[in-house]
Design goal:
With 456 residues, the chain is α/β, with parallel strands linked by helices. It has three domains: 123 residues, Rossmann fold, CATH 3.40.50; 240 residues, tm_1862 like domain (pyruvate-formate lyase- activating enzyme, Alpha-Beta Horseshoe); 64 residues, OB fold (Dihydrolipoamide Acetyltransferase, E2P). Helices cover 34% and strands 21% of the residues. The strands form six sheets. A five-stranded mixed barrel has the order 15-16-17-19-18. A four-stranded parallel β-sheet has the order 1-3-4-5, sandwiched between helices. It is globular. The structure holds iron/sulfur cluster. Iron/sulfur cluster binds next to helix 6.
Length: 456
């Protein structure tokens, strides 16, 4: 193990595979060290991504690279890209085991079959853990998958074909994963899913109306149960569709006493109604703006982030200008900018009015400049505030400062006056000034927050 490409769901799945293998006694080694240090593995698992044509390409390269470095290994290829189009992977490595992500449990079954075979336990490809943990990629926060698949069929998106229709994990399964992550010392839980707002409790029995079990059949109810039944300190959502930001969900946020973090990533994709309609999105700009206002009213100072696709077919100059104006007017704290990438088999590839690559690039550059300005504006607003920060790694430059994310996702640098290491430490930081390119802040630690005691 464990190479994951793409989104937080892929990351959560890769971490779960690493844990599962480590739990079966498989030694995890580092596949990303310099070539001179590379250790051949007996088993490599690659979780592929198909969100763009570049992601497909990188996924195939990862498989070829893994085979070159590990000629005799069992190579298991899972994730979205191989589910949508297995042929290029079969061509890249005829000996690889290809897993279809649309079949629930297919990857686990494949690994179980490999581990059940006679012979010594395999050495997987990943990051060598300092015994007995941590698991590769997991240091301060854990990604806990609560939902998979999507039935929305936006006209540019191939994910529903890769992942199949929506399905949810039961609240009990989610709670077990949350408790296990907290027991491993993770101080922040990020709930992940392909379309997380469709969470419906999976095949759990609803129980009597008004009971916890019944409430947990929605995302808000699930989060209510996590807050009530675990000592989680920080809970974050990576991304949620605008129409799923319900009053019920925001009420849970408001009542959480700061444990639900003031950060909402709500994909926008375009700030023009015609483009949104042709994208098959289920809101218009007025509806989206109303959601942003509601978040700000109920969770004051929440950071609002969004994804935007530039150069979608039919996005002419007038639509593009409307989109930029709308984005500026919302005043996001950050943007993820994607150039439209035609995905085979989607309705968008057949639309008239395709935008050429040069214009897609130019629009991406323009929007990235807007995003950088919005990030700096957001950072400047944090100066003088007290932020709760989870520290992750030493700050660049080799000093004694550390870097971490505040609850509102602002990047913060600070050090402890006694020079202690701040790895996986939560502290209240008095923000004093802008740092980096003005898109992060620096300050001093005012108070450290003890970790909650957690039973496995
Ligand atoms: S909501 Fe739309 S963009 Fe998101 S995974 Fe589903 S189809 Fe794709």
């Amino acid at each position: 193990m464990v190479e994951d490409l793409g989104c937080k769901v892929n990351h959560a799945e890769a971490e779960a595979v690493a844990r599962r293998l480590a739990g079966r006694g498989v030694r995890i080694i580092d596949g990303h060290r310099g070539a001179g240090h590379r250790v051949a593995a007996d088993l490599v698992v690659i979780n592929t991504c198909t969100v763009t044509s570049i992601a497909d390409q990188k996924s195939r390269q990862a498989v070829r690279r893994a085979r070159r470095a590990n000629p005799d290994a069992e190579i298991v290829v899972a994730g979205c890209s191989v589910a949508v189009d297995p042929a290029p992977f079969a061509a890249a490595d005829p000996a690889a085991r290809l897993v279809d992500a649309r079949t629930t449990g297919a990857l686990d079954a494949e690994l179980d079959a490999l581990l059940a075979a006679d012979g010594p336990l395999p050495t997987a490809w990943g990051v060598e853990p300092a015994a007995p943990a941590p698991i590769p990629g997991e240091r301060t926060r854990a990604y806990v998958k609560v939902q998979d698949g999507c039935s929305f069929h936006c006209t540019y998106c191939v994910i529903p074909r890769a992942r199949g229709p929506e399905r949810s994990l039961t609240p009990d399964a989610v709670l077990e994963d949350v408790r296990a992550a907290l027991a491993r010392g993770r101080r922040e839980i990020v709930l992940t899913g392909i379309n997380i707002g469709t969470y419906d409790g999976g095949d759990s029995a609803p129980g009597p109306r008004g009971s916890h079990a019944w409430e947990a059949l929605s995302l808000a109810g699930l989060i209510g149960r996590i807050l009530a039944e675990t000592p989680v300190e920080r809970l974050r959502l990576p991304s949620i569709e605008a129409q799923h930001v319900t009053d019920e969900l925001l009420d849970v946020w408001a009542a959480s006493g700061g444990r639900c973090l003031p950060h909402f990533h709500v994909p926008l994709q375009a700030g023009d109604d015609g483009t949104l309609r042709r994208m098959g999105r289920r809101y218009d700009t007025a509806g989206y703006a109303a959601v942003m206002r509601r978040i700000r009213r109920i969770v004051p100072d929440a950071a609002l982030h969004a994804d935007v696709i530039v150069g979608f077919p039919t996005e002419d100059e007038a639509a593009w200008r409307r989109s930029v104006e709308f984005i500026e007017a919302i005043g996001f704290a950050g943007l993820h900018v994607f150039r439209y990438s035609p995905r085979p088999g989607t309705p968008a590839v057949r639309m008239a009015g395709q935008v050429d690559e040069a214009r897609r690039r130019a629009r991406a550059e323009e929007l990235l400049a807007v995003a950088a300005r919005l990030r700096r504006t957001w950072a400047a607003r944090q100066v003088g505030r007290m932020l709760s920060v989870l520290f992750e790694e030493p700050a660049p430059g080799g000093g004694s400062d550390w870097v971490g994310h505040a609850g509102n996702h602002t990047l913060v640098e600070a050090g402890a006056s006694d020079g202690r290491t701040l790895a996986n430490v939560i502290a209240r930081v008095a923000v004093e000034r802008l740092a980096g390119d003005g898109d992060r802040v620096a300050g001093r630690c005012d108070e450290f927050v003890a970790s909650a005691t957690v039973e496995a």
